[in-house]
Amino acid sequence: MRIGILGTGRMGQALAELLRGAGHDLVIGSRTPGEASFPTVTLGEALTHGEVVLIALPHAAIEANLALLSTIAPETVVIDLANAVLVENGRIRSALEQPHGRWLADLLAHARVARAFTHIHDELLVSRAMRQPHTWAIAVAADDVAVLTIAETLVRDAGYVPVPIGDLNRSSVLDPGGPLFPNMYLPGDMRDLLRRHGA
Description:
This protein is an alpha/beta fold. The chain contains 8 helices and 10 strands.
């Protein structure tokens, strides 16, 4: 696939390494192109490069770049990796009143949004995929079955086992404060945990 990754942080870099290794044609878009220690393009160039766009920007940067994100071509598959994190009274939770994936899908109504790669530590993403490929689970959510299939394919290509959890309205389990955040699970353990939480 042609993939544009928005964001040059650890998650964006890790997924670029894994998905490029699986044979995908991708670019990494930066808010400050040229300042990174690896090749980057502008966010706008990354948007137009990809038939799939991975948003690995901080939550606040999504809102700040909403006008640009609104130019994503209609029907583009968008994988939402961002989290709106709030720490309150010693507890981590989402700063949103709705699942992050639903929030983004409402903002980008012309795109086709899925949620994946959000509940794991970014610093473990490459090492677990390389040392124990196709062992660890990543939960995936989307409203559209075809979009869910694409997200599952990218999860497999990154070296993980996709666990579909339903539509974006159910995706709060991936968000800060949800039962999956911020940990990694084997597929069976993840399914057991989700059943215990009624997901």
